[in-house]
Amino acid sequence: MTQPLPxxxxxxxxxxxxxxxxxxxxxxVETATVKDEAKERRGLAxxxxxxxxxRHDYNDTAEVQGVxxxxxxxxxxxxxxxxxxxxxxxxxxxxxxxxxRISHLEIG
Length: 108
Description:
By secondary structure, this protein is of the alpha+beta class. It has helices spanning 7-18, 21-25, 43-58, and strands spanning 28-36, 39-42, 61-70, 73-81, 89-98, 101-107. The chain has one domain: Nuclear Transport Factor 2, Chain: A. Strand 1 and strand 2 form a beta hairpin. The chain is globular.
């Protein structure tokens, strides 16, 4: 069942699509982790580096297709387009929220 997107996730995707790293980063807690492309980033500094690198390498945007909630975990399916082979591709963004902010994101 598709759920509404929590504010932190809506803000993250809107900022990501505008390539606004500062606003996207504001959706995360300071100790957040991100797992993408088999690498884990810990803390806001590493997450910022990951956002800057993916923006530079892929110039990607994500169109939300659906949302499923399981307690504090949200799986967001999005159509991701950019300058990478096979674009566009459907990916799952698995978010864990703590007090309304992103504490973990895994993309796969």
